[in-house]
Amino acid sequence: IITDENLEPNTQYSYIAYSKNDESEIVTAITMDTTSHDFVWTIDTLGNYGSLLRDVAIIDENNIWVVGEIRTDSANYNAANWDGKIWNYVKILSGNSAVYSIKYFSEDDIWVTSHCFPIHWDGNEWTLYHIQNMGLDACAGNAIWGSSSNDIYFVGDNGSIVHYDGSNFEKIESETEVDLIDVDGTADGEYVYIVGNDEGNYPCASLLIQIYDDELKTLYYTDLDNPVEYGDCQAVSVKNNTVMIKVFEGLWYYSPETEQSTVVSMDEYVPNSHIGVVDFEAQELNDIFMITGISKYFHFNGTTWHYEEWFYNPESIIHLYRVSQHNNMVIAVGGTWGDWIGIVVRGYR
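Above: the chain's sequence. Below: its structure in token form.
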């Protein structure tokens, strides 16, 4: 592997290797172009007082799902679907129950979670799986990821990890009681990465778990009694076999193949970048979108970071939970502090 630094974006370079008595053919490579920081933003409000959105799945610009709790004067809902023109409310659970996460495989294969349990849509009805009645001592509703509908991971409180193989649910022992908050993996499902962060406890503990070849391994663990250089883990995103973990010190790049790590500090470009990040997604290595809990976002275009803050009104700060990207669209969801209504921030580049 040869590393060539300080190159220009979207530029072709040619290389020749020389030995004492020979030389190679010319090899060319084109560097990635940057992506634009310019988005046009629309803020949608969903529900009345007490509403909050917790996750989002973008299928295309005319098919977007958000989940959480949406309260109206006439009924309570757990999700909404954008059809390109309006938001259509969807009832998944009865009462005031909230939905925490979503993974969309197809129109008749959608997984969501309550606080602890998986719920599946088969095109006709929603089925809630009481995994504790199956003998699984787990509460795995914080996040979902899967390479296919036969390979899904659910993560949640007290180190809970549950795997679904298309037929059966199985608990995976994590050997931790830290709350697990985010999960992602390689496109083929070979590697899975899970972030834990026990912010509500003291001392705060945080970790990164890898699952590979049915073996679980804790790659990183830190707390106030065992401080580690990078600080706490806040979210994870995997793209092109590169694992990116947002840590207190910046953005940690990890290679599963070489087990090499690089941490890039963001503070040089983004003020207080270590504070309050709740989620991020890398659509490409030169198109990374990151949100904080309170109205702020960071975008990396391969060369520079852009920092901005959304404003709803002077009395209400937007509190964000999850973000997702699709082509030139980005969606962040949450709610407002103050009047407590659901918020969808839609950005179009």
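The chain has a mean pLDDT of 92.
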